[in-house]
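Record MaoC-like domain-containing protein, 137 aa.
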Amino acid sequence: MNAKWSEIKVGDRASFEVAITPELVAKFVDISGDDNRLHLDDSFARQKGFARRIVHGLLLASLFSKIVGKFFFGDENLYLAQTITFRKPVFVGDIVKVEGLVKNKIESVRILHIETTVNTPDGEVALSGEAQVTYKE
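=>
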């Protein structure tokens, strides 16, 4: 999309899918330092009640940046805030759908409120939240 301010309307949507590979998780571990065994060891994750190892919630939340940066404004935006609620686990190897929906557009201060979600392969919401983004021309 990468639209200009005047082109964006309440109700506009953007989405993409991404495979959560072991390599992606390993990169996140390197960057974040979060080497919790729930994310790295299938056997340990099963002992804790999960089908297999789970993906870091903040790795998934970081994907919202692509929705904001690539689909809404590109280089013309500044991310102001993001709320996150973790609802369901995502497992290493899953393909998730990341979505953004423009809920509100405040003309006077050029701020968008974007509903953000990450959905599991079966369509359930794993993460939800709201981004606040400003347009800088």
